[in-house]
Amino acid sequence: MSVSQETNNLLKDKLKETFGFSQFRGEQEEIIQNTLDGKNTFVIMPTGAGKSLCYQMPAIAMDGTAIVISPLIALMKNQVDQMNAFGINAQFLNSSLNKTEMNKVKTEVLNGEVKLLYIAPESLTKEDNLEFLKQAKLSFVAIDEAHCISEWGHDFRPEYRRIKSIVESLDSNLPIIALTATATPKVQQDIQKNLNMEDSTIFKSSFNRKNLYYEIRAKKDIDKQIIRYIKSNHGKAGIIYCLSRKKVEEVAELLNVNGIKALPYHAGLDGSVRMANQEAFLNEEVEVMVATIAFGMGIDKPDVRFVIHYDTPKSLEGYYQETGRAGRDGLEGNCIMFYAHEDIIKLDKFNKDKTVTERDNAKMLLNEMVSYSNLGSCRRRQLLHYFGEYFPQDCGFCDNCLKPTPKYKAEEEVALAIRAVDLTGERFDAQHLAEVLMGVKNQYITSYEHHKLDIFGKGKNFFKLQEDEDEDEDDDDEQDEEFSDEEDEDGNPISKAPKPKPAPKAKKKKEPELNPVDQWVSLIRQITILGFLEKDIENYGIVKVSEKGRSFLKDSFPITLSKDHDYEHESIEDDKDDEKAASGGGKAYDEALFELLKNLRKKIAKEKNLPPYVIFQDPSLEEMATTYPITREDMAQINGVGMGKVVKFGRPFIDLISRYVEENEIETATEVVVKSTVNKSKIKIHIIQQVDRKVDLDVIAEQKELTMAEIIEEIEHICYSGTKLNLDYYINQVIEPDKQEEIFDYFMSAETDNIAIALRDCDIEDISEEELRLMRIKFLSEVAN
Ligand SMILES: [Zn+2]
């Protein structure tokens, strides 16, 4: 075994032992190795993808104390609680500690007992803290929420800009790992420059949060819409973001009056009130937190099921980060934003007193927000594009995919727009290009002599052609019926997977169309997201022609584009269906047991004064309610558990499950499956549901973006954990009956179900691995389970 293999195995053992995971997710392992190798590391990973583990693991594995610089005190306490629950000595150093506590922490660090020391940038700059850190044995420095360094995000913290020089004064050889959950290419550049980390290894994960459902609604009758939404999602935790403190208070009050337990959170509240409200939310004493953006940074609550933006946020960074707090456990997470153009005007007014640069920055961020809200193209594609990521197809799981605005085909027009970019020298933004195409003769255009170009005014007649398609549609009645309480649907398995529905006519035919310049702007933005144009990182708004765009000019084809939303005229829909569609997860686990486990968790959490999820997270409980672990060893195999947690919290849960199993005469699976990531449990549930509905495996694979082999592997796991799956409907399509019989007989008589051996020994003509594996599943389901 090579050295690196050996360390890899050691890391995996450590991961299992400490955190109860048997596999790393995504690039975690490479990232950890990079830090262990003493190199600088830059990690861009969306919320919920396992960012913290990237510095927690090396901190555990290395000698000395790792410093974790983190912007908020609330966040530190949360993380330290979690680490301690896993049996790791983590501490924080900040102004909330008194002198005695502070000294205790310092002594422990100097004695080499502390693996992670969380510290705010303000505390880091204090002279006596610096002196103390110089005496300590340090392993590396982690800078969490690194985007706080950049003025381009919304969380800019000037003191972050001093971090580099301070770290250097401690020890210039200390490896740095900077992490952020939000970074556009521009912010990324800024972070690297400021930390002097241009040579660092960059790990950028996809920003796609597959389980999040994005929707934007017109801001009309908003209170009614929100109350109805929460009532039909009874018992689920959610956050509502408002722009102003006053609004926060009002909405919290409104919800309480309507029988929904909600608390406010904003910077104007007394510190102790804020803390108490936050705890109440984490401890599941209230369902909804109504808050300004002051709430949530680093709040590690994994089971927030919805995030509602009451007001339009001021940037997509903010929006992405706030919505990112939904569904961190990989299960349901609905993100609903209410849009009104007045909000944009209001936000723009706030910027009045800023410096010119700040004001310009703010305006650009706001423009992106407006564009995102209004475009009819897939939200996920837009968001990912904003973060510098190309997503090759529509996601099928956002409002624009499920309830599309009217579509139109364009080919000549796309070519015209690309040529306009090219002919003007790739130095202008969409607005200018649209004006050139529409033949607008303003000072700006004439000063560049763009009125002399042959494309000038060529776009004038275009959008008139697009109207005919909507003509024969019926008028959409305003669905403005009186507000009535929805029946509480909690507890009913939601079995409908999201399926594209026919367009419910987002627009009515008599509506005013967008003005043609705006339509051209929309077209240019859409083809940028589709990759025909690309954004200039250095200069905001400027687009260039991409390779794809150039080859389109040579060989064009029709492209389907979407009309923009017109929120002024969109009717409010009955959102009942959306909620069903959005909450894709049905329940494949034992719900009664899950409820019992949840109550037990709540009780223990209360006794220990910890948030419930610090004990065990929902996916772990779901897994327990699927596999019924009744020994310590079995319990330690549950994802997210690990022996440390079994020792700390496991006993009462094992007792409960044992009692339950006995009382209900449940046979527990003898062979416990080790699954790789928390997210897998969601995929499993999805597969079980789809198979029940006899959906073809290749279709399921496509839905989940998995290969056939991966899908089969998931199904094998499901079977090995004791769940019966009937795949006959599919197997009968792909394997001849005779062949099926032969394979079945082989497994009946074989000594082992090992596939490699079967391939060698089974003596069946033209047999493929896939066929063998499918038949093994059938065999196991019918014979073994
Ligand atoms: Zn979509």
From TrEMBL:
Segments of skewed composition (Acidic residues): 467-491
Domain Helicase C-terminal as annotated: residue spans: 221-370
Keyword Metal-binding: yes
Record-level GO BP terms: DNA recombination; DNA repair; DNA replication
Enzyme superclass (EC): isomerase
Family label: Belongs to the helicase family. RecQ subfamily.
Identification of the protein by name: ATP-dependent DNA helicase RecQ
Organism phylogeny: Bacteria, Pseudomonadati, Bacteroidota, Cytophagia, Cytophagales
